[in-house]
């Protein structure tokens, strides 16, 4: 049986003695208590003085100041597949990066890899926040001095968007509006926006160029097109430098194997080909299931334009360097070649 009664661990002499129902304290021990209290108070005062004098507390966070020669980029969705690769590339090129992510889709493992690679102060900070929360977003922009935003954060599964369209309009369209409003309010000068070839729908004529008309056919593509429209309309009366990049099918990973895509099991059914490849390669799923075998192609499977994620992030860094105030650049980012 377990004994929950108190055991007598101290010898009697060290404890307060009881005389006729009253607690009697040995006077010699009273002096000891007093000494201990004085010592504790002195140590506490010393600690407070040391903490106040500590340079790390007095000096502002490097993320909250503009430093000449340092470009501070806010990477939204930086815990995700493309955002984490973009962060790696930016850090390698000596940018200062703040990641904001609610970890709804990305993973903290990628952030830890990046933090371990770039542990120096002022290189990378991670903020766990939801871009749908106006108060959090305002706080992030007011407490940090960003020079540019790479806005990757989104839910990005075509199939899921048809089942839960409001989630897509909220997460993509409405959150982009909030990001742009805060960029305008806090004077952030450059925006690189993650858009998609899904904004084109199913055009008759191939290849798809930037001049191809946009007629999206699912809520994902429509939500992205609306976000693009918000950005373009805003830009007409703004000095912000904007680049809208419409990606095709992103594939691959960091050649050194440090980052990748780790799709959540519940999203597998919505099938993104990149995630399915990672799952199959890591043995998480028994193999790669090819969906769609009746396309008018030699083997009946779909032909897509695959772009390697490292080439895609290269395009982002170039876009950041070339972005011009008061101008909107719109670029398709693919290879221009279809592959099985
Ligand atoms: N992967 C592709 O093939 C592809 C193609 C075209 C466009 N895109 C676009 O690229 C961007 C990145 O896609 P990805 O493949 O890296 O997706 P991903 O799901 O791996 O990453 C998205 C990240 O955004 C975060 N996020 C989502 N909603 C958020 C919110 N409300 N607040 C904060 N963080 C939030 C997620 O947690 C995740 O880390 C998306 O905008 C997507 O639409 C991707």
UniProtKB/TrEMBL annotation:
GO MF entries: UDP-arabinose 4-epimerase activity
Q: Does the keyword Transmembrane helix apply?
A: yes
Coiled-coil region list: none
Keyword ATP-binding (UniProt): no
Enzyme Commission designation: 5.1.3.5
- Which Pfam family, an example, fits this chain? Epimerase
Cofactors named for this entry: NAD(+)
Gene3D superfamilies attached here?
NAD(P)-binding Rossmann-like Domain, UDP-galactose 4-epimerase, domain 1
Task: Using the record's annotation, list all stretches that form the NAD-dependent epimerase/dehydratase domain.
Answer: 73-334
Source domain of life: Eukaryota
Matching InterPro entries: Epimerase_deHydtase, NAD(P)-bd_dom_sf, UDP_G4E
Q: What UniProt keywords are attached to this protein's entry? A: Isomerase, Membrane, NAD, Transmembrane, Transmembrane helix
Q: Which ranges does the record mark as transmembrane?
A: 33-51
Question: What NCBIfam families does the record point to?
Answer: galE
Family of this protein: Belongs to the NAD(P)-dependent epimerase/dehydratase family.
What protein am I looking at? UDP-arabinose 4-epimerase 1, variant 2
């Amino acid at each position: 049986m377990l004994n929950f009664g108190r055991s007598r661990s101290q010898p009697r002499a060290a404890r307060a003695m009881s005389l006729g129902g009253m607690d009697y304290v040995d006077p010699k021990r009273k002096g000891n208590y007093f000494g201990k209290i004085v010592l504790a108070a002195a140590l506490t005062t010393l600690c407070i003085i040391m903490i106040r004098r500590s340079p790390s507390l007095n000096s502002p966070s490097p993320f909250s100041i503009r430093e000449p020669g340092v470009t501070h980029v806010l990477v939204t969705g930086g815990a995700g597949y493309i955002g984490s690769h973009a962060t790696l590339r930016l850090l390698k090129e000596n940018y200062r990066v703040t990641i904001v992510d609610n970890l709804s889709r990305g993973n903290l493992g990628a952030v830890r890899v990046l933090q371990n690679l770039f542990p120096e102060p002022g290189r990378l900070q991670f903020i766990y926040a939801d871009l749908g929360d106006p108060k959090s977003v305002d706080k992030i922009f007011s407490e940090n001095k960003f020079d540019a935003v790479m806005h990757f954060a989104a839910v990005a599964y075509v199939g899921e968007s048809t089942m839960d369209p409001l989630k897509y309009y909220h997460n993509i369209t409405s959150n982009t509006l909030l990001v742009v409003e805060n960029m305008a309010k806090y004077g952030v000068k450059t925006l690189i926006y993650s858009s998609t070839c899904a904004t084109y729908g199913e055009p008759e004529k191939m290849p798809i160029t930037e001049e191809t008309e946009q007629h999206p056919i699912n809520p994902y593509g429509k939500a992205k097109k609306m976000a693009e429209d918000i950005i373009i309309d805003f830009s007409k009366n703004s000095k912000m430098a904007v680049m809208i990049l419409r990606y095709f099918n992103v594939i691959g990973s960091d050649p050194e194997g440090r980052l990748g895509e780790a799709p959540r099991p519940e999203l597998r059914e919505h099938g993104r080909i990149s995630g399915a490849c990672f799952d199959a390669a890591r043995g998480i799923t028994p193999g790669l299931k090819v969906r769609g075998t009746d396309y008018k192609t030699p083997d009946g499977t779909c032909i897509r334009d695959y772009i390697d994620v490292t080439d895609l992030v290269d395009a982002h860094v170039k876009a950041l360097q070339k972005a011009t105030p008061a101008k909107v650049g719109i670029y398709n980012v693919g290879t221009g070649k279809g592959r099985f």
